Amino acid sequence: MQSIDKLLSALENKGWFISDDLFPADLIHQLFLEGQQRWEQGQFHDARVGRKQHLAQAAHIRGDSILWLDANDEYPATQEIFKLTGLMQEAFNRYFFLGLKHAELHYARYASGAAYTRHLDQHKNTSARKITLVSYLNPDWKQADGGELVLYDPLNPSQELQRILPLAGRTVIFRSELIEHEVLPCKKPRWSVTGWFRDDEIMFDIAA
User: How far is Cα 122 from Cα 102, in angstroms, rounded to an integer?
Assistant: First the structure.
């Protein structure tokens, strides 16, 4: 993993960061293969919105299917991404004094035509999610395939900060409580590993 000095500086000064080589290309490829294998085995489920007992499917809000990952899963690429996010967590804690305790990660697969409406990752009346990470796994993705991630300016909510094409190896990291964002409709299946660095001890208490 490349030096994260630029990442730390960008989060401090802008609240968001993009890199095309934060993670090794072979890791991205192996995550893609593992994700496809587990999709074919029926391990994914439709994503939900809300918290705890109020979880609900809402395809008009988000249309992805997800699979939560575990650092103890017997999948080498999954184990490796948790090792690298662990190193990132240590750096975030040293630099920002966030008191992060763990990262939660999942595969997200958007079928053709699926999207996710504009939202914040830090839900109302919660504060556990501090930093969002999205790493794209899509080989041979083209502009015409759509599926861009749109980031919005927290100081001018009607203003787009960036439209980000989900190319394989591209990673986007941003402050969960600050940056509103959405996923535009895609024209073919769109894959990522998505997650959050959290400062609580409880995992999976809210939908993703």
Answer: 16
Is residue 114 classed exposed, middle or buried when 0-12, 13-18 and 19+ CB atoms within 10 A define those classes? buried
pTM over 0.85: yes
The structure tokens 């085995």 sit at: 41
Superfamily of domain 5-198 in CATH is q2cbj1_9rhob like domain (2.60.120.620)
Q: Which of 173, 188, 207 is nearest to 91 (CA)?
A: 173
> In which order are the strands placed within the sheet that holds 149-153?
116-119, 181-183, 149-153, 156-164
The pLDDT > 70 percentage for the chain reads 89
pLDDT at position 55 is: 39
Phi–psi pair at 135, nearest 5 degrees: -125, 120
Q: Domain boundaries in the chain? A: 5-198
Residue 50 to residue 56: CA distance in whole angstroms: 6
* Residue-level pLDDT at 4: 87
**Residues 208 and 106 sit within 8 Å (Cβ to Cβ):** yes
Beta strands in the chain (DSSP E): 16-19, 45-46, 64-68, 102-110, 116-119, 129-136, 149-153, 156-164, 171-175, 181-183, 190-198
Q: What is the residue-averaged pLDDT of the chain?
A: 91
